[in-house]
Structures are given as structure tokens and as C-alpha cells.
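Q: Here's a chain of 201 amino acids. Please give me its 3D structure as C-alpha cells.
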Amino acid sequence: MRLATLAVTSLGLLTVPGAGVAQVVSLFNGRDLEGWRVHGTERWYVEDGELVCESGPDEQYGYLATEKAYKDFDLTLEFRQEADGNSGVFFRSSIEGTRITGWQVEVAPPGLYTGGIYESYGRGWLIQPDPDRDAALRMGEWNTMRVRVVGDQVTTWLNGVQMIDFEDAKIGAATGSIALQIHDGGGIRVRWRNLRVEELD
């Protein structure tokens, strides 16, 4: 049996000969913030081909949001917490100033529920991972997070460990941007790379 070979185009799309193009795209080009919008006064910049978020002098909340809205998707990314590390990945979100509507997949230091779902300016924590799953977090090292959102259902993984699997009708009714967060309080620095998303029909 002949095996099809995979090819990667210059745009970062994965192609399979004879099967068309799978919609897996890179959200970050490794050079600048094209395709994103900065909200707030905290620092977002590119260094050594990686995306960095860092507390600024105002030490407030800050967000970096995609210009495009996403409904159902499968997102993978890598993050490394260099200082404190209290951050997050929002989905189906909208932002006015630094007030955000949407849901956050938590990225935080050990013991603070990385991979759980938090609703800002709303119901607060919707679900937290079982405490024993926190061992999947490698503070100060590169971590791989996967977030799959389909209809009412949200599933997250951290370094291959499923953190939560959750259904919520309010989430299911929404659409909006994917956004990275930097928490208030100052002293935070997180690096990001290999942000890739597949839109799901």
C-alpha cells in the first residue's frame, strides 16, 4: 500500500496530497504582532522568535487578542513562565479597554489550577482540575497546552494530561477572539510559541 506523504506550505498549512488543505494555521508569525490587537498598557513583544508578555509600569491586566473571531476550534500552544506566570488563554472573548467578556483557560504557578476554566466579570471559577493533575505543570520550563472548544464543550490538556472536560450552555452560545492575558499585580513574565489553531466545522 502506498503511503501519502505530508507537505508543509510556506503559510504553515498542513497538506495531504489528494486530500486538500487541513485548516491548521499558525497564529503567531515569530516576527511581530500581525493579526493581534493589544489591550491595555502591559508589554507584548517578540524576542528570539517568541512572544513575550511582561508587566508594565501600570501593573494592570493586559490582553493580546486575535483580530479574528473563533467559534469551534482546536488550539495548541507552548508557554514558559519566567516570573510568577499568572496568565491565561481566553476564548470566545470580547474586550473593551481591559474589561473582557469570555472564558479563561488558566495559566498560573503551581497549585493555582492551570487548565481550569474561569469566567471573568461573571461566575468566576466554573471548573478546576483535580489537584493531583497539577503535577503536569513544569514551572519555568516549556509546557504544551491544548484547548478544544466545540459547541457547549471545552476540554483542556497540559503536557498530554487531560485537565478538564466541561459543558456549559453559556459558552456554547458565544463566539469571539482568542486572547492571551497578563494578570495585574506586576512582576509577571511569560513566553509563548507555536500557537496553532484548527477551526472545526
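Q: Can you summarize the key feature?
A: Helices lie at 169-172.
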